[in-house]
Write a structure and sequence with these properties.
The complex is a heterodimer of chains A (206) and B (334). Chain A is mainly α and 206 residues long. Chain A folds into two domains: 1-106, RNA polymerase sigma factor, region 2, helix turn helix motif (Rna Polymerase Sigma Factor, Chain: A), CATH 1.10.1740.10; 108-206, Arc Repressor Mutant, subunit A, CATH 1.10.10.10. Chain A is built from ten helices and no strands. Chain A has helices at 3-25, 28-50, 53-70, 80-98, 112-120, 122-128, 131-150, 153-164, 169-176, 180-205. In chain A, helix 8 (153-164) packs across helix 10. Chain B is built from six helices and 18 strands. Chain B has helices at 12-21, 29-74, 243-246, 262-272, 282-290, 302-310, and strands at residues 86-92, 96-98, 105-106, 112-113, 118-120, 125-130, 133-137, 142-145, 149-160, 171-174, 177-191, 194-207, 212-216, 222-227, 233-238, 276-279, 315-317, 324-329. Chain B has a 15-stranded mixed β-sheet that branches. In chain B, strands 16-18-17 form a three-stranded mixed β-sheet. In chain B, strand 17 and strand 18 form a beta hairpin. In chain B, helix 4 (262-272) packs across helix 5 (282-290) and helix 4 (262-272) runs antiparallel to helix 6. The two termini of chain B are 43 Å apart. Classes of the chains: A mainly alpha (206), B alpha+beta (334). The interface between A and B is large, with 70 and 54 residues.
């Protein structure tokens, strides 16, 4: 990530530190923001790695209990999402080991070769139905969705509305309750941030 | 500015990828409600625990201040006022405490000790806190405690502390001379009339009737100083790890893994094995500081615990040879 990425990350860390301080003070709005922003991300992260609803529930409950107990030790060494994901990875690792399952869930989020291969054939694999191609497709979906989860939520939502749900800019503006011009600006920033997160892998893959 | 102007040239790539990927999965409402309740309850528990800790610390400080003030005004002339806090941490095997008055009693963890007590280990090993120092007794050791020093009557002790410049180090008295640490890890052994002091971190100062010697740990090796019964003094290199230091792990002193960060665990391993902790990259340090551990390493010495604990993380340790403990972040392939 470039310089802009670094400054965005440090802005995010500053924002996360403030959020944590407010949660520790018992600020209800901060708590709700924390639930809205991080629960779905933790869910998706665990869901893509465990494939079993009961395991997902168990793991995320342990992660949240740990996070609640250790929240006062969060000093902003990394973003809050990274901090939570690290705890989650550790718990998933334990869960997989307990079940004697060797599937490694700690693969890099954006693997150049994997992404290139899957995106090149993404439309054809959708219909091929072979277990291998299905598995690779699920993998890339996991990668892209995690990339979306690393963006500020309003960026990710704007991209989804535009490119997945097919809304026009004016319609997105209406749904997000912002002006059309602000929506276009938001989409432009969201695209740049998404490319930044996906990095060179995405460019070369397409 | 219109929408096309703001498309950064071409958004086909993003459009194709996101359409193929589909919308992100939504968190089911029942799970969200359940997790929210659980998180609130854990947070409330943590908050009340924090309040309890603050309250205990506050009242503890107030009580200590009160006792200190009363003690100051009620002290008899010539009394030492800065009593060291001495507490037994771990006992392995048999070890006893001989009181200034009364018959000896077996040592037990969390037991408070006092100036004038003599500790005898026999076949056992003991770890104790002496103010900010970690003090361990090898087998067949006798140690007398005082408020400003310890006196090694026989056997061997290990001391690890973090004295900073200007702070008074711990003074170890022996029949051959006195040893004071200067921010260090060292052992002192009194055996068959010889005094042997070995330092692997920082410095110690040995003062005999005849002279004073400053012994600095080397960058890669420990240094040792020997005083013979005839008063001859010898300085030599020594191993900073290995069999001469292995006994310090037999006291049962261990690390409480549950809920601790990987970074704290690694700092403990490095310190216990006389090594410097080095991270191969900032990503490894961040990972270590944000990864919480769980489990139990009772019965394992620090070097033995390293591999099984790191196996539950993405961290890997380099070969445990030499002065450094190098930690890197492993990124397994898909």
């Amino acid at each position: 990530m470039g310089e802009s990425g670094n400054s965005a990350a440090s802005l995010q860390v500053g924002r996360d530190r403030r959020l944590v301080r407010r949660i520790l003070r018992g600020d209800e709005r901060a708590l709700r923001a924390f639930f809205d922003e991080y629960f779905p991300r933790l869910y998706r992260y665990a869901r893509h790695r465990l494939h079993n609803d009961a395991d997902v529930d168990d793991v995320v409950q342990v992660v949240l209990a740990q996070a609640a107990r250790r929240l006062e030790t969060y000093r902003g060494e990394a973003t809050l999402l990274t901090w939570l994901i690290q705890i989650c990875r550790h718990e998933i690792s334990k869960q997989l080991k307990q079940g004697q399952r060797e599937r490694d869930m700690m693969s890099p989020f954006l693997n150049d070769d994997l992404l290139r291969a899957v995106v090149e054939s993404i439309e054809t694999t959708e219909l091929s139905g072979s277990p291998e191609s299905d598995s690779r497709r699920l993998e890339v979906i996991s990668l892209v969705q995690f990339a979306l989860d690393q963006l500020p939520e309003h960026y990710a939502r704007a991209l989804e509305l535009k490119y997945i749900e097919g809304y026009r800019s004016a319609e997105i503006a209406q749904r997000l309750e912002i002006s059309d011009e602000a929506t276009q600006s938001l989409l432009a920033r969201a695209r740049r941030a998404f490319r930044e997160v996906c990095g060179a892998a995405l460019q070369s893959a397409l | 500015m219109n929408e096309e102007d703001m498309n950064d040239g071409n958004d086909d790539d993003i459009a194709r990828l996101l359409r193929a990927t589909g919308a992100r999965e939504q968190l089911p409402d029942d799970l969200r409600a359940k997790w929210e309740t659980q998180f609130r309850s854990e947070l409330a528990l943590a908050r009340s625990e924090r309040r309890r800790r603050y309250w205990q610390t506050g009242t503890g400080i107030a009580a200590v201040l009160l006792v200190a003030v009363l003690g100051w005004f009620m002290r008899p002339p010539g009394t030492v006022t800065d009593a060291a806090v001495m507490v037994v941490r771990h006992v392995q095997g048999s070890a006893e405490r001989a009181h200034a008055q009364g018959s000896p009693t077996a040592l037990a963890p969390e037991q408070r000790l006092a100036a004038g007590d003599v500790l005898r280990t026999g076949a056992g090993h003991v770890a104790l806190s002496y103010d900010r120092f970690d003090l361990r007794l090898n087998r067949d050791t006798q140690l007398r405690l005082a408020n400003d020093s310890v006196e090694l009557l026989a056997g061997e002790i290990f001391i690890s502390g973090n004295s900073k410049p200007g702070e008074r180090g711990l003074l170890v008295r022996t029949a051959h001379g006195d040893i004071r640490d200067i921010g260090t890890q060292f052992t002192v052994r009194v055996s068959r009339g010889d005094l042997l002091a070995r330092v692997r971190e920082g410095s110690i100062e040995l003062t005999t009737d005849a002279a004073s010697y400053l012994v600095d740990a080397g960058a890669t090796r420990a240094r040792q100083i020997t005083v013979t019964p005839g008063g001859d003094v010898e300085l030599a290199d020594a191993d900073a790890r290995g069999p001469d230091w292995a006994w310090i792990h037999r006291t049962g002193a261990t690390f409480d893994l549950e809920g601790a960060s990987a970074l704290h665990f690694l700092e403990w391993v490095a310190r216990e094995t006389g090594r410097e902790l080095v991270f191969a990259g900032e990503d490894a340090r961040i990972y270590a500081s944000t990864t919480l551990l769980s489990g139990d390493i009772a019965g394992l010495d620090p070097a033995q615990a390293l591999e099984p604990v790191l196996a539950t993380t993405d961290l890997v340790a380099g070969q445990l040879q030499g002065r450094q403990l190098t930690i890197s972040l492993q990124r397994p392939g898909p």
